[in-house]
Design brief:
Blueprint: E1 6-7, H1 8-15, H2 19-27, E2 34-35, E3 41-43, H3 45-54, E4 69-74, H4 78-90, E5 95-100, H5 103-113, E6 117-121, H6 129-138, E7 146-152, H7 159-163, E8 169-173, H8 177-188
Parallel strand pairs: 4-5, 4-6, 6-7, 7-8
Antiparallel strand pairs: 1-3, 2-3
Helix pairs in contact: 1-2, 4-8
């Protein structure tokens, strides 16, 4: 599989500057690029995104596949947070991870952080995951987020409520590191639900 790279001309279009300016930034060491055997510069998309962020430049929607994935963990269980964090660290996903421990933090993070993936522990002492999922799916601002639920293996009474939820995947406790990694990978690759 060939990794996508940008020419100086293509990078210039995203940066809204001339290709000469991009060339000058590369030569000055401000923008990292590599040279092809033919002497042409190529820029890796993630490097271009980092450059744009560093210089407070607007990032076009077309660059969104190259942005770090935003992941929100909604749980008040340190063990779940730890396993999810380890799984993401061990993957090749570039990410930003935030944690919400109650309904208020979740609502705030959903609007402010705008996660690509929300991982929710369904039932805890301080939050009702079922209600949070319903709210995420009803709000046009948040319903594009993928939802991965974490449920207890012995949840019989909540079975109907869980089946009625619109989610993209589910895992059962106790979480297994490899299963978490595989599921998150599938969700970001738009594979089948996990």
């Amino acid at each position: 599989m060939t990794k996508q790279v940008f020419t100086t001309g293509k990078a210039a279009k995203y940066l809204k500057v001339s290709s000469v300016t991009v060339y000058n930034w590369i030569r000055a060491g401000k923008l990292k690029a590599y040279k092809t055997p033919g002497g042409q510069y190529r820029i890796v998309p993630e490097v271009l995104v980092d450059f744009m962020e560093k210089h407070n430049m607007p990032i076009p929607k077309a660059m969104s596949p190259f942005l770090p994935k935003r992941i929100l963990v909604v749980a008040d269980d340190a063990m779940i947070e730890s396993v999810i964090h380890q799984a993401i660290q061990q993957s090749d996903i570039k990410y930003q991870l935030n944690v919400a421990k109650n309904g208020y933090e979740t609502a705030t993070q959903m609007l402010k952080f705008q996660p690509d993936l929300v991982i929710i522990k369904l039932l805890t002492e301080r939050l009702d995951g079922v209600e949070i999922i319903k709210q995420i799916n009803m709000d046009p601002e948040t319903k594009a987020s993928k939802i991965l639920i974490i449920k207890d293996g012995d949840m019989n009474a909540e079975g109907e409520a869980i089946l009625s939820l619109e989610t993209d995947g589910s895992l059962e406790t106790p979480l297994q590191l490899e299963a978490v990694k595989e599921c998150i990978y599938k969700l970001f690759e738009n594979s089948l639900d996990c």
